[in-house]
Amino acid sequence: MPIVKIFLLLSLLLVINYSLKSDGVLEDWCIADEQTPDSELQAGLDWACGKGGANCSKIQPGQACFKPDTVRAHSSYAFNNYYQKFKHRGGSCYFNSAAITTDLNPSHDSCNYELTP
Ligand SMILES: *[C@@H]1O[C@H](CO)[C@@H](O)[C@H](O)[C@H]1NC(C)=O
């Protein structure tokens, strides 16, 4: 086996190992990209909670994910809800490049970010 192929195989194994948790489930949440300005996040948020079909009830006033009351936090929640709902049916974590996936659980306080295996 040529050395290059062995190297590629090892790299692939490392990547797979890195993205799998010990239980073998790929953990990927979808959140607002730090680079994205609020105006673009707002557009993504509006789409996700509208035509996108995300369930945005938790970011309504008084609900678990309303605070912090920022476009960034609300769009992260909505992007993730959309992504978890549709990722196995063609939905992606994109939102005109306003979103990014992460393996760090964004849940905080009583605000739980859904995760579909
Ligand atoms: C949206 O989520 C809330 C709780 O998170 C749930 O009670 C409600 O039934 C959901 N609505 C839809 C349409 O799935």
From TrEMBL:
Membrane topology, record value: Lipid-anchor; GPI-anchor
Annotated signal peptide: 1-22
Domain X8 intervals: 28-113
Q: List the InterPro entries.
A: X8, X8_dom_prot
Would I find Membrane among this entry's keywords?
Answer: yes
- List locations, semicolon-separated: Cell membrane
Task: Supply one GO CC term from the record.
Answer: plasmodesma
Q: What keywords would UniProt list here?
A: Cell membrane, Disulfide bond, Glycoprotein, GPI-anchor, Lipoprotein, Membrane, Signal
Identify the main location: membrane
Keyword Lipoprotein listed? The answer is yes
Q: Name one Pfam family in it.
A: X8
Q: What is this protein called?
A: X8 domain-containing protein
